[in-house]
Amino acid sequence: MTAAPAYAECRRIARASGSTFYAGMRLLPEDRRNAIFALYALARRIDDVADGELPADAKLAELGRMRDQLSRTREQDATDPVIAAVADAAARYPIPLDAYGDLVDGAEMDARGHVYVTFADTELYSRRVAGSIGRLALGVFETSDRSRAEALADDLGVALQLTNILRDLSEDVAVGRVYLPEEDRTRFGCRLENGRLDGPVELLVAFEAERALGWLERGLTLVPLLDRRSAACVLAMAGAYRRLLEHIAAAPAIVLEARPSLRRWEKGWVLARSLARSTA
Fold first, then answer.
1. Are 35 and 50 a contacting pair, CB within 8 Å?
2. What is the pLDDT of residues 106-115, one digit of tens each?
């Protein structure tokens, strides 16, 4: 398959996902934007397996098949548009495709129902499912110090995943996925009962939101190492998460009532502010 239709399909997948990241990705120059769409489309495919309705054994089998496919991404003449686009992007940019292996590892943790006892467990999961995306994306960005930027992109991914965990708290707990570590739940006197968290959950959520904001601030020290368009992309993606985290930190109960999201005007404000900050 030629690159143009392959990239077009990845762009369609990214747009249809409704992801908060889509607006930020569009700030990149066309070639780099296409590469990011390709990376996102493949990550989305892996994530959809982990979040899908297949039995655990079937999920693990499918993830194993995908892992094998990923190991041959650079070699094959792919007919799959997503794989073809990723292979083309990797030929153009220093994309660490091995990071997809970490993403599959994280998806397997979900499929197996991993128990998160300490924050180190939650951090490991976050590095696998989101830090990996930060490292992949960095391969498309221009940076003045790639080795330093890679560690910061990984940390930024952890921050964004911690935000996802808080945003999706009620939905995840209801289906048996509890990413907030047991040590923190015990510390605040919270317990799991009948598919919900009981106790002073607002205190727990406020604590985790402040922790995530700390990770976010550290991860955003990546920005000065990037070119202007890449910086704008990162600021737009992370800015929406910062805004959401600030809402959660100020009113922790919102994650217990529904899945919080930003209003349209807030998304526009974040995008405009990101462009202004990247220019400055």
1. no
2. 999 999 999 9
